[in-house]
Amino acid sequence: MRNIHLVYFSATFTTRKILREIARVMGGNVIEHDITCDRPSAKVMVDGEHDVLVAGAPVYAGRVPRQAAEALRAFSGNGGPAVIACVYGNRDYDDALAELQDIVDRQGFKTVAAGAFIARHCIFNDVAADRPDTDDMRKIDNFATECARLLASTPDVSALPEPTVKGNRPYKESKALPLFPSADAELCDGCQTCARQCPAGAIPEESPCQTDGDKCISCGRCTVICPRHARAFRGMPYEQIVDKFVKANAVRREPETFFPAPVNGPTA
Ligand SMILES: Cc1cc2nc3c(=O)[nH]c(=O)nc-3n(C[C@H](O)[C@H](O)[C@H](O)COP(=O)(O)O)c2cc1C
To answer: Which residues, if any, are the signal sequence (predicted)?
Structure first.
């Protein structure tokens, strides 16, 4: 049985949901590495012959979040296969999937399949609000089934051509968003859950109603984990752009998957 090294960065848990489903359907012994807040303390050497990497990250401004890219450097592939997925909030994934492919390949993996999937936008929650939905999950299951079939029928993945994913190289410039969640002091009871689980360490434990704008990566984790719903994106400039953003991204995008092009066999 293969070990599946399931590696994900997932601040608001949609990437985790999708990546866990891919690993579940692919089958095998799943070893989970959540790199959202922590990096592995030692290098993870993946057995290139028997194991597979399933790696995923959300799309931040068309790119892989910098923290995810850095944490992925702890994994070493030894020529083993990788299935990669990016998860985005129905605007676009731009160059994120191409970047993720380059990251895992640089770590010594061979990307054998890639997918771009859609989930609720963690800043503009009315965009793709109910995604991934049943139809998405069916497509995710089909993708995972196809990945399992490809790996079962390809004992030596080094001979496979890499899938050509959508995206540009060089990648678009990485940009931070000037939007930070804030806390409603009336609702906050000082439990510090947000401070303890902030991937960027941007919320001081001693004053959890504050947000350090120099550290905050706008990931939205504090808005989904606050037990009292005290934290949210609100105020200016958020209120100025939210309606326009929701309207501009209302048309439903569909999952896209990428596999190696069939290799031509010898002609008779
Ligand atoms: C800083 C930031 C930038 C984002 N940029 C994009 C983007 O370029 N395109 C897009 O469609 N969604 C974008 N999103 C939305 C996320 O990709 C989406 O909500 C994803 O599901 C979040 O994954 P998670 O739940 O695993 O954290 C962005 C979110 C954040 C926090």
So the answer is: none
